[in-house]
Design goal:
The protein has 152 residues and is α+β, with helices and mostly antiparallel strands. 15% of the residues lie in helices and 32% in strands. The radius of gyration is 23 Å and the shape is globular.
């Protein structure tokens, strides 16, 4: 009887070791992510180009290799969509996507809009997708007095 109890305890112990083994890995952090949405440009919303460009999203490549964002999209909850043309984001670099008009550079891209995209009050979500439509990262917020959201 003792032998049987010892075998049962050993089997249970082995079973518990399997059950209590290493946890499945958490979802890997995205290589490129939204780090900030500045949804409420400072001052009165006049729709001037400088006011529109003070509304922006920061996207960062958190890896050690350059990433192509060509054809990727940034979209708000309403469906306003910015599409990256031919563009690569350097390792550890960030790019600002401004709502208004301007000339694209390696660190600043422009939506070329004459109206705001991001909700100042209520809530909104920025979604970054690959050219194939795969969601890479999302950042949601509810309007606050700060006027921006730092994204995890």
């Amino acid at each position: 009887m003792r032998a049987r109890a010892a075998i049962t305890a050993a089997a249970l112990g082995a079973g518990l070791a399997v059950v209590a083994g290493p946890a499945s890995p958490a979802h890997a952090a995205p290589a490129v992510k939204i780090t900030k949405i500045y949804y409420n440009s400072p001052g009165t919303d006049t729709r001037s180009n400088s006011s529109l460009n003070a509304e922006y999203v920061v996207i960062k490549n958190v890896t050690t290799t350059t990433r192509s964002l060509s054809g990727w999209t940034l979209k708000d909850a309403t469906g306003y969509t910015y599409t990256f043309g031919t563009f690569s984001l350097g390792a550890g670099k960030s790019v600002y996507v401004h709502t208004g008009k301007g000339t694209n550079t390696a660190t600043h891209r422009y939506w070329q809009r004459a109206a705001y995209v991001w909700n100042n009050t209520g809530s909104d979500t920025g979604t970054l997708r690959t050219k194939a439509g795969t969601v890479i990262h999302r950042c949601s917020y509810t309007g606050t007095t700060a006027g921006y959201k730092i994204c995890p």
